[in-house]
Amino acid sequence: MTTTSGPTATLIRSTLNDAMFPSTGSKNSVSVTYTGGIFGGNTTFTKVNANSSWYFPLPFDTVLGIYGKGGYLTSNDEKDVPVYERYIVGGMSTLRGQRDIGPRDPVTGDILGGLTWMGFTGELILPLIRDAGMKWVLFYDTANAWESGYHLDDLRQTAGVGIRWYSPIGPLRLEYGFVLDRKENESAGRFEFTLGMAF
């Protein structure tokens, strides 16, 4: 049985003008997790994650959003970092339209995840039904995970469209990502759905 125990420290700075639908400002954060050693458990690693989001107002209530994310993970002893702690790219917050992107077992093809990852996103957020708190979005995502290093020439790419609604039960997102660099046995795209707006 694998157990993980340790603290996470996070530093956040935000100048956003709105928590749900910002139109100006930025939000930047860095977090560091350390496990094992005096904190117990039988896994020991250090994980560093960084996020940066920037919003720029454009004419006709349109907003340009630019986001960058990345992470670094290393073992603190001779053991491998557990697969469930590794970086696997795909889904609403990294690469919409894709799933399980990252290093794989060369024999079985099973996803193993990476020790590093990086991703970037550009969005145009436009009003759809103002009184109902609905907007629509055009987006471009690029991201990947690796066993080591950061390889800008090896970023996967998707693009798509979606709807965001500040509903009575909370903010909802329904978006579809098209795979721009589709490989053999990959789907052409997929729907993504989540409750919440944060990147």
Which helices and strands occur, and which strands form pairs?
Layout: E1 8-14, E2 25-34, E3 45-58, E4 62-75, E5 116-129, E6 134-146, E7 156-167, E8 170-179, E9 189-195
Antiparallel strand pairs: 1-2, 2-3, 3-4, 4-5, 5-6, 6-7, 7-8, 8-9
Explain this structure.
This protein has 199 residues and is mostly beta strands. Helices cover 0% and strands 51% of the residues. It has strands at residues 8-14, 25-34, 45-58, 62-75, 116-129, 134-146, 156-167, 170-179, 189-195. It has a nine-stranded antiparallel sheet with strand order 1-2-3-4-5-6-7-8-9, with no helix packed on it.
Provide the descriptors you would attach to this structure in a database record.
199 residues, mainly beta, Porin, nine-stranded antiparallel β-sheet
Arithmetic mean of pLDDT = 94
According to CATH, the homologous superfamily is membrane protein fhac: a member of the omp85/tpsb transporter family
What share of residues is helical? under 10%
Largest sheet: 9 strands, antiparallel
N-to-C SSE string, H for helix and E for strand: EEEEEEEEE
Anisotropy-based shape: globular
The CATH architecture can be named as: Beta Barrel
Cα separation of the termini: 33 Å
Strand order of the largest sheet: 1-2-3-4-5-6-7-8-9
